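User: My instructor asked us to take a sequence, write out its structure as tokens, and then describe one feature of it. I'm not sure where to start. Here is the sequence I was given:
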Amino acid sequence: MRPRAMPAGALLLATTVLGGTGVAHAADGDNEAAAGSAQTTAAPDPKFALFDRFMEQGLLVKMPPSRDTIAKDAWGLRSALAEHDIGIQFLSLNSSAYDLHAPRTQGPQRYNGENLSGMSTQQVLVTYNFDPQGDDQKQLIFGAVNTLASWEPLGPRAKISLSRLAYYQSFNRKQWELKIGYLSNALEYVGIYTGGSLAGGTQGLNSVIPFQVGMSRLPFASPGMNLQYNGRNEFYNKFGIQRSISPRGSQAEIENNEHGFRWRTPDAGTLLIDELGVKRPATQNTRYLWLRAGAIHNSSDYRRMDGRGESDDNDAYYAAADVQLTRSESAVVPSQGWNLGATYNVAPSDRNLYTEYFEARLYKLGTFRRRPFDMLAFNVNRTEFSEEARAAYAARSIPTAHYMDAATVSYMARVHAGTYLSTALSHVSNPTFSPKHDDALNLLVSLNLFF
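Assistant: Let's start with the prediction itself. The structure tokens for your sequence are:
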């Protein structure tokens, strides 16, 4: 019996995949801070409401609106583009990790932070709206991304790759929403960002399971379609079909599809995903609530963890909840206050290294009177490893970890419009699957910029 070889540092993919604590959120309906961004309390300029219609539509996870960007309408650029029904967005996501406990060694790096590690993603999004007015929208979306990483397993690295090429249309006052084309679904499903916003970046560990079974994420885009139904009382159901990301891993995907335009890649089958939930924004009369659960099925053949051939498919299931517990008396926006959340993911252990993920989180938006849009977050989680993979390694007398635990405290500060600085301290037990390693104490810093 020959166990499947694990790529160097594969375990710490979970520390870099689009998730973690420290993300500010606010209700979609907030007048001063829509979709998780921090705003000033000045009366909003109506032109920014128009600019926001040119932002990418159809996302469950939000990006800061145009009013909360560094550029805003500098030199009248957004106004000039809006006259031609065009919108533009730039973002820069930058993160680093350093293990304060790790002794410096001359050997190869085995996990994120063992040596000073960093990753940087730059993306440009351009949209064209066919109907800038009205309750429904028709929109073309194009995105390109560049990704750099100091350590290869943090990647993949992409010089320039397609991140979006899609058509979006809503019907019957957004009761139905359709998006079709090349999609990056990390912002469309699951809700891996604490608070439901991209603003605070990635801190600590977060579940890799949805991406392990082939769901697309930056810097990848894959052909697919998403269809969302929005019902009464904030209920929604979202169904998607896409070409899976390579079952051989992210590096294989980028090697076979460097610029992201290929319709098919070797060994990649079809992925189906369905999510139902209730997503209620915070308002003057209601508190923030997001309940969701979903299932993923992938027709791709995955290598079995015990080295005995391949499976015919792969699956994953997830559930998550975020509930606003309190509202600050001096709240600038209704979403300020303490929030409690939990997440559970599971996947078959015979074909996945990461088989179960548990997370509990407690976070507060509006930490101090003069810092109403900062975020303090506490996160604890556990990742379980495949029993089949552990048995295969044990047969060769190679020690492995049964699980990885992490406890993280983070603080996200809105330094300026469009500028978010997050710092975190994360204690990680068993930072590698194999070989076993002493606990890590990672100092995490991220700087996310929206232009």
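For the description part of your assignment, you could build on this observation: The helical segments are 46-53, 77-82, 209-212, 250-256, 387-394. Try explaining in your own words what that tells you about the chain.
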